[in-house]
């Protein structure tokens, strides 16, 4: 609990097919979370409760799963998914929240939920292959949604 706390999680693959699990909860304002999943079979669950929090996510490798929840106003989440067979669940509950993500690989599933006013989602998908599926749900007023599919960088 508090203000301006920082957490960084780097999950690498383990020998023998073992995987990592991480659980983080941040409560307060202006907290920062950095999550990198670079190995295989990793799981991370994080929650930020408060205003003005920032979460940065990078998924690489295969068979990784992440769940990130932000509750409060003026929260930001930036993510890059550059991995196959991954699962990502993002939930923001509050106003003036932002998700900015880039999806670079196929064979992944994700869910993005935003509830509140003046929230925005900008997503660029650079893969041209069909995805297993994704869900985006935004509820509130003043919503800004941009999804670009098949955009090669």
Automatic annotation (TrEMBL):
<dbReference type="GO" id="GO:0007155">
    <property type="term" value="P:cell adhesion"/>
</dbReference>
<protein>
    <submittedName>
        <fullName>Uncharacterized protein</fullName>
    </submittedName>
</protein>
<feature type="region of interest" description="Disordered">
    <location>
        <begin position="44"/>
        <end position="75"/>
    </location>
</feature>
<dbReference type="Pfam" id="PF07012">
    <property type="entry name" value="Curlin_rpt"/>
</dbReference>
<dbReference type="GO" id="GO:0009289">
    <property type="term" value="C:pilus"/>
</dbReference>
<comment type="similarity">
    <text>Belongs to the CsgA/CsgB family.</text>
</comment>
<keyword id="KW-0732">Signal</keyword>
<dbReference type="InterPro" id="IPR009742">
    <property type="entry name" value="Curlin_rpt"/>
</dbReference>
């Amino acid at each position: 609990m508090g203000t301006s706390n920082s957490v960084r999680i780097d999950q690498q693959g383990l020998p023998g097919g073992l995987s990592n699990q991480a659980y983080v909860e941040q409560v307060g304002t202006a907290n920062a979370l950095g999550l990198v999943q670079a190995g295989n079979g990793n799981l991370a669950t994080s929650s930020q409760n408060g205003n003005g929090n920032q979460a940065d996510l990078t998924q690489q490798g295969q068979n990784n799963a992440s769940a990130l929840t932000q509750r409060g106003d003026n929260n930001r989440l930036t993510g890059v998914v550059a991995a196959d067979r991954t699962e990502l669940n993002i939930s923001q509950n509050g106003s003036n929240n932002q998700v900015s993500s880039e999806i670079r690989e196929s064979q992944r599933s994700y869910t993005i939920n935003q509830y509140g006013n003046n929230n925005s989602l900008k997503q660029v998908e650079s893969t041209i292959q069909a995805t297993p599926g994704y869900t985006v749900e935004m509820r509130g007023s003043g919503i800004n949604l941009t999804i670009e599919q098949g955009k090669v960088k």
